[in-house]
Amino acid sequence: MSAPFFLGRIIDVIYTNPTGDYSSSLTRLCLALSGVFLCGAAANAVRVYLMQTSGQRIVNRLRASLFSSVLRQEVAFFDKTRTGELINRLSSDTALLGRSVTENLSDGLRAGAQASVGIGMMFFVSPHLATFVLSVVPPISILAVIYGRYLRKLTKLTQDSLAQATQLAEERIGNIRTVRAFGKEMTEIEKYTSKVDFVMQLARKEAIARAGFFGATGLSGNLIVLSVLYKGGLLMGSAHMTVGELSSFLMYAFWVGLSIGGLSSFYSELMKGLGAGGRLWELLERKPGLPFDEGLTLNEKSFQGALEFKNVHFTYPARPEVPIFQDFSLSIPSGSVTALVGPSGSGKSTVVSLLLRLYDPLSGTISLDGRDIRQLNPVWLRSKIGTVSQEPILFSCSIAENIAYGAEDPSAVTAEQVEKVAEVANATAFIRSFPQGFSTMVGEKGVLLSGGQKQRIAIARALLKNPKILLLDEATSALDAENEYLVQEALDRLMEGRTVLIIAHRLSTIKNANMVAVLDRGKIIECGNHDELLAKPDGIYRKLMNKQSFVSA
Ligand SMILES: Nc1ncnc2c1ncn2[C@@H]1O[C@H](COP(=O)(O)OP(=O)(O)OP(=O)(O)O)[C@@H](O)[C@H]1O
């Protein structure tokens, strides 16, 4: 900021010495000025480096905290929130906020410092001229406030619309097989295009506001310079100012004008950042509806794994008006196999979700070894439960990594352990048939594997976890005879010595279970073993069997 001052002094030295005897003063002033330039250049380089790195660090930390906050939320939160929206917050909102508080903040601070020192220097060089010039500041400030508010609102709307577009793209790309099977590519393209077109409309509004604001601030800057020339010329004519002072003043005024332009751009970026930030804080500060990692753990030695539902009432938070369980009671003794049967939509999978404490009942209790699971640490509880669902979801990594995912610390799992559980799960033969064996990549959600293969990997994963309690959801779709046999044998081995609740679709499973519980419209209506239930003349179970809705394997 001292450069214009020195430049003015140099001009005055030259003009006030018509004899030309000013070389020593000129050298001194030029040396001083080059020193100033050097310091300025070094400071600028350091500023850019620090701002870039701290900017990235802020974005990284924001992303990590946000991801951690999202993963801790209760499952009901994910029932209501769209994945694409969360992805958009993680990627786009964090980048916008990060940029706004670093690079932009640095430019803003620089512009602010330049403007205030510039104004100070203007007063130092000519208080009279400075007062005259700064009368244009208040109208610009009012304009800036109106513009900032409008931009903040617009950014929030833009980010929301962008999130909707991301959501649509994410869902359709993730389910491309369904889109293809129904031949809906063109419809989906049109839907997506209309969503991004709306984002474009908002961007156009922003561009108009921005153009107006920048035009106004640019014009004000130029008017400042013009008025300095006019008023300064008059002051010089009346010998109240030297040519060097007017030059210095002009340069300061020019800098102040530039800084005001910089400040307006800083302000608009800051407003955009705050627009995106509001949505981020909401999520960062959200307290999970269910505790994440707190509560009691039971004594491992005396742990039995007996489960009991007592007078449970439950509705899903996303649809509180539809009761799923009303006075639901069921006892699953330790070490026994209980088969849960019932029509589609009767609440079988909900029983599993409640046992995993993905949701809490409205009233009644679910207990493990006589202890209400709400008192237990959910992480500990889930570590004691293994699940194999109808259509197991695998992650897009290797087969070995997918199996090791079952262990508490996957990085500590050895290749031998993985191979051993794969053997028990009847998975070794097909894994070995792949050229890359256990290192074969399974694709997103395991799309590169067949249903039976995915199930056996999920069984191996559950075996590695070695849980006391098993919650199984048998596949409804019939596998071919060989696969069927291999999966069934693997499941039988997995069930040995554990408390098992199995959502049963196969007659053989039902027949072998210690107890069959028949669920209908959220209530257990019959309970007993296969033969006992079949013996009831008007029993629902008997009717279900007659409908032959079970896979008779
Ligand atoms: N996350 C959810 N939010 C709101 N309602 C849900 C949710 N999940 C399931 N439901 C509803 O709860 C009821 C019971 O569903 P559930 O999946 O437990 O049935 P199910 O007996 O396992 O059915 P199926 O045999 O077809 O898998 C259904 O009416 C279903 O629409």
UniProtKB/TrEMBL annotation:
Residue span(s) of domain ABC transmembrane type-1: 1-272
Topology in membrane: Multi-pass membrane protein
Organism the protein comes from: Myotis brandtii (Brandt's bat)
Name by which UniProt lists this protein: ATP-binding cassette sub-family B member 10, mitochondrial
Keywords (A to Z) from UniProt: Acetylation, ATP-binding, Glutathionylation, Magnesium, Membrane, Metal-binding, Mitochondrion, Mitochondrion inner membrane, Nucleotide-binding, Transit peptide, Translocase, Transmembrane, Transmembrane helix, Transport
PANTHER family per record: ATP-BINDING CASSETTE SUB-FAMILY B MEMBER 10, MITOCHONDRIAL, ATP-DEPENDENT PERMEASE MDL1, MITOCHONDRIAL
Listed InterPro entries: AAA+_ATPase, ABC1_TM_dom, ABC1_TM_sf, ABC_transporter-like_ATP-bd, ABC_transporter-like_CS, P-loop_NTPase, Type_1_exporter
All copies of domain ABC transporter, residue ranges: 307-546
